[in-house]
Write a structure and sequence with these properties.
By secondary structure, the chain is an all-alpha fold. It has 2 domains: 40 residues, no CATH class; 62 residues. It has 6 helices and no strands. The longest helix is centred in the C-terminal third of the chain and has 38 residues. The chain is rod-shaped, with a radius of gyration of 40 Å. The protein starts with a helix and ends with a helix.
Length: 125
Amino acid sequence: MNELHFAYRIRQHLNGGLQQLPEKTLDRLEIARERAISCQKRAESCSPLVFAGHFLISHIENLSYKQVLASFVLLLCTVASTFWMADQRVSEMGAVDSALLADDLPVRAFTDKGFDAWLKRSSQF
């Protein structure tokens, strides 16, 4: 006897026993069944963004002020260092441009293809 057949026989036996129960007990069982069905959660299809939103909200609500302040300071330091590094690069390029323009080389030297290669080679030493 397989499991499906066994379950079918149990169901038949239980249904047969229902006829022997008093009417009052059947009414209480029906009310309990309706309550259980109304409380049962139904599966709903949701977008993954909904789950991401719930995840973020639940984690943001649990943050303390110290964690938020530390995150803000870290972000501020990152932005400041990025701007500082960019300013340093611009200053270095400006110094090189000023040195090239202040030099006594003719304008044709700057347009020469070999001049760029010579600059790169001489800056490596």
